[in-house]
């Protein structure tokens, strides 16, 4: 659903709706990011209250009209509204898949599970961005690329309704084991306490939240600004689609390795390195003037993001108590996906004032600072690594983590 937009919507804003100001052209990303961030928060709370599956199905029901609105939109306001719905849908559906996988796996394999989850999503983004560019090059910007989204929404709604099973009882079973082991002082935290702990109170959770926000700020730049930069250098539409696909493709494939790696080597250093690699890659986009240079930068950006993305989710899974883990994931994802809105506003404002290249450099600098914050503020959260023990293959690790 995101892949259908990454190649096409920035060019639709410029060529069909004649939006000349970058800030105006990126309003759809602001709408998406803001609503997805809020929906993430409520997805965790609703998943704890009503179960995971009802939230997942509701999210896909909200997604059904999105491709139709993108196809028929007579004005830019319709595009923005479609992305409001898309943000609600993504917040409910993707948060729930994360929570369900954390429910189903033990602490020793959370990174691997998050790697599979995020790889599935971002490989789909890459494939669809590439396909959308190819379709648009042959059939125009509308309606062809968005027919893919209509098929995806129908397929996902059917699978969620018919094939997915509820997982909330797995989390309740794990919470019961905490209580039986005497590791249960934090089981009864209120939602407000969870928000404060995840946002500021816990060193590692707050470091993860800010890194997640900056990571998706980068993604807003790649989504909304990079295609315009490439088009300004007269890159053909099909090649813009290829460049738009490279970043999420490497990101997606890489997570199959990096999630597992964080289970073996720990979380903190992978996140720090990933943020700094992203900063370098974004700087290379600003310096680049050719398709090969931009392709190399997109690959490097994908590598950096792959190091970070599943690992941050694993950090939250390590630290949060099973009784309120879903809500902690929702709070973390509220901050993380708020980065879409912040990134779109920041990139648009800087680009309007000083140009596209200045906007790219500003985001590169922020990303480097974020990596340094993780290096200073985050504690190692993997249960075995935090105790200086490397778990044997297949061996369970402790489920608790001392709060930072």
UniProtKB/TrEMBL annotation:
Listed name of the protein: MFS transporter
| This protein's record includes keyword Membrane | yes
* Cell division listed as a keyword: no
Q: Which GO terms describe its molecular function?
A: transmembrane transporter activity
The record's GO CC annotations read: plasma membrane
Q: Which InterPro entries match?
A: MFS, MFS_dom, MFS_trans_sf, MFS_Transporters, Sugar_transporter_CS
Residues covered by the Major facilitator superfamily (MFS) profile domain: 1-382
CDD domains associated with the record: MFS_MdtG_SLC18_like (cd17325)
Kindly list the places in or outside the cell where this protein is found, as annotated in its UniProt entry: Cell membrane
**Organism's domain of life?**
Bacteria
Keywords, sorted A to Z = Cell membrane, Membrane, Transmembrane, Transmembrane helix, Transport
Q: How does it sit in the membrane?
A: Multi-pass membrane protein
Q: Where are the transmembrane segments?
A: 20-43, 55-72, 78-99, 120-140, 146-164, 270-289, 295-317, 338-354, 360-378
């Amino acid at each position: 659903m995101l892949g259908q937009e990454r190649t096409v919507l920035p060019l639709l804003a410029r060529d069909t709706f004649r939006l000349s100001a970058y800030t105006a052209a990126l309003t759809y990303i602001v709408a998406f990011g803001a609503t997805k961030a809020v929906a993430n928060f409520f997805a965790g709370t609703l998943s704890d209250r009503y179960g995971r599956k009802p939230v997942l199905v509701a999210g896909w029901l909200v997604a059904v009209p999105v491709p139709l609105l993108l196809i028929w939109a007579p004005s830019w306001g319709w595009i923005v509204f479609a992305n409001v719905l898309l943000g609600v849908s993504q917040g409910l559906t993707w948060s729930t898949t994360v929570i369900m996988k954390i429910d189903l796996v033990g602490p020793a394999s959370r990174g691997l599970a998050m790697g599979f989850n995020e790889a599935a999503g971002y490989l789909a983004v890459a494939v669809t961005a590439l396909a959308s560019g190819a379709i648009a090059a042959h059939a125009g910007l509308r309606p062809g690329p968005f027919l893919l989204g209509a098929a995806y929404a129908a397929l996902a709604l059917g699978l969620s309704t018919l094939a997915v099973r509820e997982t909330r009882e797995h989390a309740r079973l794990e919470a019961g084991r905490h209580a039986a082991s005497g590791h249960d002082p934090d089981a009864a935290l209120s939602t407000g306490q969870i928000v404060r702990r995840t946002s500021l109170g816990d060193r590692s959770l707050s470091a993860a939240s800010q890194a997640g926000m900056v990571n998706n700020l980068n993604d807003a730049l790649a989504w909304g600004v990079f295609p315009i930069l490439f088009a300004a250098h007269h890159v053909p539409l099909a090649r813009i689609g290829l460049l738009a696909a490279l970043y999420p493709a490497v990101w997606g494939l890489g997570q199959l390795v990096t999630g597992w790696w964080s289970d073996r080597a720990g979380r903190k250093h992978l996140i720090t390195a990933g943020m700094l690699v992203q900063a370098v890659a974004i700087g290379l986009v600003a310096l680049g003037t050719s398709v090969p240079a931009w392709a190399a930068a997109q690959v490097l950006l994908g590598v950096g993001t792959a190091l970070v993305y599943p690992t941050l989710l694993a950090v939250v899974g390590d630290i949060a108590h099973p009784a309120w883990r879903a809500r902690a994931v929702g709070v973390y994802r509220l901050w993380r996906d708020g980065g879409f809105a912040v990134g779109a506003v920041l990139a648009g404002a800087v680009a309007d004032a000083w140009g596209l290249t200045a906007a790219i450099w500003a985001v590169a600098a922020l990303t480097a600072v974020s990596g340094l914050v993780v290096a200073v503020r985050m504690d190692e959260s993997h249960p075995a690594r935090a105790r200086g023990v490397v778990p044997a293959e297949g061996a369970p690790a402790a489920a608790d983590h001392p709060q930072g």
